[in-house]
Amino acid sequence: MELVLNEISKKFKDKLAVNNFSMTLTSGVYGLLGPNGSGKTTLMRMIADVMPETEGSIKVDGVDKRTMDGEYRALLGYLPQDIGFYKNWSADKFLLYVAALKGIDKKEAKRKIDDLLEFVNLTQDRKRKIGKYSGGMKQRLGIAQALLGDPKILILDEPTAGLDPNERIRFKNLLSSISKDKIILFSTHIASDIEFIANHILIMKEGQLIDHGSVQDVLGNAKGKVWHCKIDESQLFDFENKFKVANILREEDKVLLRIISNEKPMEDAQLQEPNLEDVFLHYFNEKSNI
């Protein structure tokens, strides 16, 4: 399957939220990385057919999604950033409702729901009112509804928000295991969520696609710009004001800094291998000399 985004834009009055975005997606995990307000959610809502694009087109195997209509939506699993729940419904009732909307046979839906509730660790709470759920439990239920119906295009907007470390690992492992025959678009502003599972990274800034490629391709853009520095406490304020500081660690009477800089920040600075968080800082955290 091939999902083609062809020069799509979205304008709200005077604001251009997504600007001329083009990309071809095939099976695999795509990490959509960018700060809040970069246009990630608007882009995903257009792909999820929740919001129409102002310009451009979205096609599956050469067919426009507007022509496909219900056939296109049948391919989708969507987890929005803020999912609405009926507070007095149980997880069972909610998932059966979503399954009915997706046209899934009731007997098959019940079997799938059992499996999904087990996966998201909500089996024991399946009859409990959703209004009594914690934020993390609601997020896990949102993940379950997105996976109902074995969607071929899975759109996940900040899916790991509210999950504890074990749940995040389980979820990321699941995405990797099911990605062979699915297009998975995973939006986040937390770089570590996608560094080890994404086949392809898309970086958005101010509504535009500013970089994309494999993880190694994207990391290459920060190569030679990540430094390890050991300074005195008295120097910390000056370094924080002059450079992008990715990490601060106090060690005895010294302070260890991880700095993103085009230039060597001090004589004794040592180059480090970049990670995706470094790339994020490289693009999005403004400082004087970068």
From TrEMBL:
<keyword id="KW-0547">Nucleotide-binding</keyword>
<dbReference type="InterPro" id="IPR017871">
    <property type="entry name" value="ABC_transporter-like_CS"/>
</dbReference>
<dbReference type="InterPro" id="IPR003593">
    <property type="entry name" value="AAA+_ATPase"/>
</dbReference>
<comment type="similarity">
    <text>Belongs to the ABC transporter superfamily.</text>
</comment>
<keyword id="KW-0067">ATP-binding</keyword>
<dbReference type="InterPro" id="IPR027417">
    <property type="entry name" value="P-loop_NTPase"/>
</dbReference>
<protein>
    <submittedName>
        <fullName>ABC transporter ATP-binding protein</fullName>
    </submittedName>
</protein>
<dbReference type="GO" id="GO:0005524">
    <property type="term" value="F:ATP binding"/>
</dbReference>
<dbReference type="GO" id="GO:0016887">
    <property type="term" value="F:ATP hydrolysis activity"/>
</dbReference>
<dbReference type="InterPro" id="IPR003439">
    <property type="entry name" value="ABC_transporter-like_ATP-bd"/>
</dbReference>
<keyword id="KW-0813">Transport</keyword>
<feature type="domain" description="ABC transporter">
    <location>
        <begin position="3"/>
        <end position="231"/>
    </location>
</feature>
<dbReference type="Pfam" id="PF00005">
    <property type="entry name" value="ABC_tran"/>
</dbReference>
